[in-house]
Structure formats: structure tokens, C-alpha cells
Amino acid sequence: MNTSSILPNPKTTKTSSAHKVEWNPKLLEIPPQTRFEYTVANLAGGPKPHSHYDTEYHRTVLRGGMFAGQLTKVGMQQMFALGERLRKNYVEDIPFLSPIYNPQEVFVRSTNMFRNLESTRCLLAGLFQRQKESVIIHTDEAISEVLYPNYQSCWSLREKTRGRKKAAISQPGILEDLEKVKAGVGIADSDNVDFFILLDNMVAEEAHSLLSSPALKRFAQLIEQRAVDMALYMLQQEDRESIQMAVGPFLYILEGNLLKAVDPSTPPSKTRKMYLYATHDVTLLPMLLALGIFDNKWPPFAVDLTVELYQHQESKEWFVRLSYNGQEQVPRGCPDKLCPLDKFLNTMSAYSVSPEKYRRLCSQTRIMELGE
Q1: Calpha distance 244→356 (Å, rounded)
Q2: What is the DSSP code string of 276-315?
Q3: Digit-coded pLDDT (tens) for 123-140
Q4: Could you give the CA distance from residue 97 to residue 177 in angstroms, rounded to a whole number?
Q5: I need a surface site. Which of 80, 136, 155, 361 has the fewest CB within 10 A?
Q6: Is 24 helix (H, G, I), strand (E, B) or coil?
Q7: Cα torsion through 356, 358, 362, 368, rounded to 10
């Protein structure tokens, strides 16, 4: 799932428009129905790792006194609604999960950012509602996190992305459109702003009915499309290794979950009925490309990508059903919405990478050998 409505990220405050909006602390009030007790542990069950991202966010104070990148009441309600939808699907319509959280049934993992942990809390509140016992949300150190493209640990991805981002802005029409939008919303030419920053600002402001400039609404479609164009240019789908480095290790984990579930020798304690992963838009976009279901739109707040595993009662064959934002999808290489497991795994295997292969792809030595 993608994180929900948040305040602008620190990078967005470079724009003059970010300072025009007053972010009232009342936006952080917690809706009562979203309250849910949780503790955070590392992947081994030990103490929560330090989050350098949260430290960075706290260095930027927005007009109104709030820190950048915080989850708001609007976002909490969005995630609670997503949790309610999951409850309807997996608890009420089909009694698949227990109505109260059971750690033997559900594994929960989030990136180590407070807003994402809070997004997960709200989803769990919608999914399990009146829960008394605290739920453990697992997370990882930033250096080894695989739930987003990790530019900190993957040297090759960082260098490729940096070069392609510079080149993307000079693609036909993009620079001209950027200048047009900046002039239209009153951002100085000297401000270091791109379409990603504009999209971050615009979506956060629009979600809270706080648009800093009426022109932002007029340019909304153009800003989103150009952000998508830049992301596609930077990822370059035909360069399989870029997507492998961006989300390959995460796809490898998902692949492993499926394989363990269908292996009759897997002990019940080694698998779960549901794996919940709280990720980001920058994770979902390359995943949608890898699965062949990208709709050419930026992943919205509080969106979910769901992989369901089914077994035919008579033939005992396994199938996968994929949904994005509540809508069934046909993954690349699949004949129908109910996709034979082997065909789905074949699609994933083109982009999933083991930890060992990921280290090789990401190494500085390798990219220097290729002369890139």
C-alpha cells in the first residue's frame, strides 16, 4: 500500500508556494476510530531502528508550525477507510481472517518513517477495529530497506537515476512545460523545482483544500503527466536492471511468500495468511511497470496493490489474482484475471532479484567495469 495524505516533504518547501499555505496543527488531530496500539520492532524482533528520515523532516518547519512530511487527519481517515475495505473483503464477506488481529495469521511491515507507521496503524484500526492487544509492526534500517528504491545502499541505481533525472528535464516539451507552470503559479526561475516537487506540493495542498495558487488546479493534469514522464524516463523499462535495482529485492520477498505458501513441506509457523507491507508511491510505480499493469497515472494516496493466492478445489492447481486500487488486473504474461501461479511467477522472476544478485547489480565496481 502507498502511504496516505501527508504534509509537503522537506524538498517541496524549496518552492515559494509551499510557504504561502498555513499548515494548522489541528490537521494532526487523531480521529478516535483510528486509534490502535502498536509497537515497532526491527526484522529480528529487536528494538526499533533510528529513523534518519524523521530527523530530516523535523529540520523543516512549515508555516503554521508543523513539521514537513507528517501524516494528517485526512490521511488517517483515508487509511482507516482502506482498512475497512480490507475487513469487508477478508473478514466479513469471506471469513478468511480472524476479526481480531492474530500474529499467527498476519505479518505487518512498514518503512521506518513515522508517517508510514502511523498510516499502518490507521489501516490496522480499520481492518481489526476494537483491538486491545498491541500489534507489532516490523521495520528495517534505512541502509538495508527494500520497500523503496534504496539510493543509499545501491550505488548503481543512484548514479543511473542522477544522470537520467538531469537528462529527463531536457526531453522535448518537459523544460518548456516546467517554465510555463512555474511562471503560472508564481515560482521564481531561480528556484530549484521539478515536476516531482510540484506534484508533492499540489497533491498535499489539494487533499486539504489549501491550494496556494488557483493556477495549480489548472496545471494539475500537466504536472502529474510530466512527473510520470520523468519517472518513466528515469526508470527506462527496457533497461530491466533499473527496475530490478529499484524493487527487485521486494519482489523477491513477495515471490518467496507465494512459494512458501504452496510448498506442502512449509511448517504452518513459517507462513501467514496475510502479509501487509506499507510502502510508497516510488515503490509502487516500478512494481506496476514490472507487473505490466501501470495505468500511466501517479499512484494516489492510500492506494493498495493486492496479490491473492487461490487453490482449485478439485485440480489443486494454484492461481493468483492481482488487484490495484480495488480493481482486478491482468498481469503481463497472464491469460486472464485469475492467473496460473507459474505464469505469474514467471512475470515476477524477470524483475525479482536475490540479495546476492542485488549486491552485484548495485556495486560501484560493476558499473565502473561497464563504463557507465
Answers
A1: 13
A2: EEEB-HHHHHHHHHHHT---SSPPPTT--EEEEEEE-TTT
A3: 999 999 977 789 999 999
A4: 49
A5: 136
A6: coil
A7: 60
